[in-house]
Structure formats: C-alpha cells, structure tokens
Specification:
Its cofactor is Fe(2+). The protein is an alpha/beta fold. It has two domains: 136 residues, Nucleotidyltransferase, domain 5, CATH 3.30.420; 172 residues, Nucleotidyltransferase, domain 5 (2-Layer Sandwich). Helices cover 43% and strands 19% of the residues. It is built from twelve helices and ten strands. The strands form two sheets. A five-stranded mixed β-sheet has the order 3-2-1-4-5, sandwiched between helices. α9 runs parallel beside α10. The longest helix has 26 residues. The protein starts with a strand and ends in an 18-residue tail after the last helix. Bound molecules: 5'-O-[(R)-(carboxyoxy)(hydroxy)phosphoryl]adenosine (KG4) and zinc ion (ZN).
Length: 344
C-alpha cells in the first residue's frame, strides 16, 4: 500500500479547520498541515458562540484555509486520496459549510468522502502525537461544547459513551463562572491563570453527581456554577471584597476533582490502562496535573495531546479519516448530510 494523503475538514463550531495527514504504508500517520481559522473574536462581545456568525465566518474562511493547508503540505488537490469531514455533532449551519465543501471537493476530484464524528476526532488526534492507541482505552473529552467519557475499543469501529454532562459542558462552566467574576471570554485561560494565585481549598464548592445513587459516569456543572454565583452575590451584598483568585481556584478544583475521579473510576471498572484527555479544557494546568497524579497512583498511562491538537482543528478529522481508510471502512455517500446531534 503506497502512502495516502487524507484531507480533513472541520467546521462544527467556531473553528474552520483544514488538516492534511499522510497515511504511511505501515499505518503510520504524519501531520503535514493543520490550518485553523477561528471566528472567536467575533463572538467575544456576545460571551458565547453565535451560530449565524460562525456559519458566515466558515464560508469566508474555508477556501483560504484549504489553500494554505495545501501550500504548507506542498501538495496539490490531485494528490489527495480521501476527504474526511465532520458530519456532527455541532452547530447545524456551521457543519453544513464543511460538509458542503467536502462534498464539492470529493465530487470534483472523484475521491472517497468520509463523514466522521467530531468526538471520535478529538480522540483520534492523539495518535498524531503519541502513536497508535492500545486496543482499549478511555477518553475524557472536555470542551466548551462537550463533556464525555468514552470507552474506545477501536477508533474506527467501536466507541461507547459511558457518561456525559446532563447540563453544562465543563468549558461552558468555566465561561459562565468567568462572567460572574468579570473575567473575559473564553473563561478557561483566565481562571486557570488566576487559580495559581488562589487557595483551591478556600471554599468547598459542590461536586456534582458524586453521590452514591447518582449516575456513575455522568457529569453536572450547572449546580456548581450557581453555587459560585450565589457565593459571590452574598459577599457583594454584605459589602465584603470577593477573593477572586480563591473563588477561581476553588471552582477549578471542584471541576477537575470530579472529572479526574470519574475518569479513573471508569478506567478501573472497565479495566483499561490508558486515559486520553482531549478538548479545549484539556489545556487546563490543574486538570493535567491532578490527572497525572491520580493516573500514576492507579497505574494508568495518561495521554494528553498538545493544546493546539486538543482544540477543534482539521488535523483531528484527517487523522480519524486516515484510521478509517486504514481499516478499509466504507466511504459515505455523496448525499451525506450534517447531523447536529450525531451520536458517537
Ligand atoms: O475545544 P474548544 O476550543 O472548543 C469547543 O468548545 O469545541 O474548547 C473551548 C473551551 C472554552 O470553554 C474554554 O473556556 C475552555 O475550552 N478552555 C479552558 C482552558 N483553555 C480553554 N478551560 C480551562 N482551562 C484552560 N486553560
Ligand atoms: Zn470539539
């Protein structure tokens, strides 16, 4: 089998991504290009992603991102073997831009098209940095849009959701708490930085869904967000200063405590010895530190892709496409449509 060039297109939220991966004859993957154009700046004043603004930005950014990716990889479109695209989950209008572009390229070039799952892409991307995944592993996906615990028994074939958030995503909680603390959007990075100066044990914020009778691997962060807002409100009403760094650190500790505890518990229960943490929140310094500590204690190998690969990008879709091609998976039909609620 000669080398194959796989193109990946991502447009599920506010990042327009085009990634290019070389699939070697031995099954190895090499990242050749990873062009990402974000419309984040256009959403900042709204404090969250505005779907219509995101769709329009994808339309404007897609063709230039494709041009830059091909140039960086030093290839032309005829060199492409297959085209992978995020078919869901995500914002409907945003997904449609990527899916339409991928279908157009696939039809014009007469190349196989693979509509893939965004969440599986977040796991697959790790293979670009750390090599093949073991036969079975666990993945914790934490971003502004998702919080999922997945059992991966074949990246191209079998992914089972063990649990997910029943309300806010972990990143969403960071963004909402940042707003309460008058910190900029997105809230993860400033809370992460401020927490380093605060005491994580200063305030005992609630750990959602950790009771004996609660769904074992589901998450809940909206009660935590409300608890933080109430705590700050009471302080302000009493005319007392708000110890912002302590609040940030205590909130963060509650989030990462639950995430890591449930991930390690799931790894033990399903007898897997590798945990992958991916998604924008994986960039959190306390999350990776506590996960490293708890994984080491439990004899679990922790894999966290570099931040650039953790956030939404086209490389993760190209990587997943490459795994599908390597596995001999059947391509998608050319009338593929976007599915905003696509399950893993
Ligand atoms: O994966 P991502 O770039 O986009 C999607 O939501 O799909 O994730 C963005 C989320 C935001 O909610 C942001 O606040 C959070 O990731 N985030 C962080 C950190 N950096 C980004 N959360 C905690 N700590 C960070 N260092
Ligand atoms: Zn994502």
């Amino acid at each position: 089998m000669p080398d194959k060039i796989i193109l990946g297109i991502e447009s599920s939220c506010d990042e327009t991504g085009v990634g290019i991966v070389r699939l070697g004859a031995d099954g190895s993957l090499e990242l050749l290009a990873d062009e990402v154009s974000s419309s984040l700046e256009q959403h900042v004043r709204f404090g969250g992603v505005v779907p219509e603004v995101a769709s329009r930005a994808h339309l404007e950014a897609m063709a230039p991102a494709m041009g830059r990716a091909l140039e960086t990889a030093g290839i032309g479109l005829p060199d492409v073997h297959s085209i992978a695209v995020t078919a869901g989950p995500g914002l409907a209008g945003a997904l449609l831009v990527g899916v339409s572009a991928a279908k157009a390229y696939a039809a014009a070039l007469d190349k196989p098209l693979y509509g893939v799952n965004h969440l599986a892409g977040h796991v697959a991307v790790d293979t670009l940095q750390h090599g093949p995944l073991p036969e079975r592993c666990l993945a914790l996906l934490v971003s502004g849009g998702h919080t999922q615990l997945l059992l991966v028994e074949g990246i191209a074939s079998s992914i089972t959701e063990l649990g997910s958030t029943i309300d806010d995503a972990a990143g969403e909680a960071y963004d909402k708490v940042a707003r309460v603390l008058d910190l900029p959007y997105p809230g993860g990075p400033p809370i992460d930085r401020l927490s380093a100066q605060g005491d994580p044990a200063a305030i005992a914020f609630p750990r959602g869904l950790t009771g004996q009778r609660d769904a074992k691997f589901d998450f809940s962060f909206s009660g935590l967000k409300t608890a933080v807002a109430r705590w700050v409100e009471q302080r302000e009403r009493a005319g007392e200063p708000v110890p912002v760094a302590d609040v940030a650190a205590s909130f963060q500790e509650a989030v990462v405590d639950v995430l890591t505890a449930k991930a390690v518990r799931a790894a033990r229960e399903y007898e897997v010895d590798t945990l992958v943490i991916s998604g924008g929140v994986a960039a959190n310094s306390r999350l990776s530190a506590l996960a490293a500590e708890r994984c080491a204690d439990a004899g679990i190998t922790l894999r966290v892709p570099r931040p650039r690969l953790c956030t939404d990008n086209g490389a993760m879709i190209a990587a997943l496409g490459a795994h599908l091609v390597a596995a001999g998976a059947k391509p998608s039909p050319l009338d593929l449509s976007a599915n905003p609620a696509l399950p893993v």
